[in-house]
Design brief:
two-stranded antiparallel ribbon, ribonucleoprotein, 2 domains, alpha+beta, five-stranded antiparallel sheet, 139 residues, mRNA splicing, SH3 type barrels, Small nuclear ribonucleoprotein Sm D1, single chain, elongated
Amino acid sequence: MKLVRFLMKLNNETVSIELKNGTIVHGTITGVDISMNTHLKTVKLTLKGKVPVALDHLSIRGNNIRYYILPDSLNLDTLLVDDAPRVKAKKPVAGKFVRFLAMVFPTHLFGSFVPDLTWNIISHETGTLLNSRCTVANA
């Protein structure tokens, strides 16, 4: 499970967040988006070496966050269950390979002549070997 997916499940949890500039933010999470931008309510903001400031709402840009300090009472086992559906890899389409040959050996340059070639065909999407030997001969 990706970290941001875990953080997106922390709605209504009270956490402390340390920012990269040393600021400590303590508040209740109202939402976390895919960029790890975090939205909080009932916030206490403590700048490094300054007096704490109380705020009703605060949004923090995700790339400014150093780390989250989670409450001890948080049940991590239930939150870490990956409930997102898995996406199956698409099967390669033969038409893509034919278009590749047309680009490599255009008929206006070679006429009907295509040199004899042997190579391995590897799927671009999955990186798996599709055909161990593919030969194109003169037509």
